[in-house]
Write a structure and sequence with these properties.
mainly alpha; single chain; about 0% strand
Length: about 70
Amino acid sequence: MLAGLDGRPPEDVPEMIESMELAWLVHQVEQRYGVRVQLDGDQYGRMTTVSGAADVLREVIGMPDEHVRD
């Protein structure tokens, strides 16, 4: 999903996530899966990397790993 933000290949997405990328990612997850993502401060704090964001989003929306990392 993050690769779609600016059209780069998935392998060019860095592990660290900037705040604008995180906001866009959460919005995309909400749109794709038809859910409202409610995050607390601890969860936001864990979403500084791609893998951390995938883990938190998987927990919050209850989806298996392969769906969140698409």
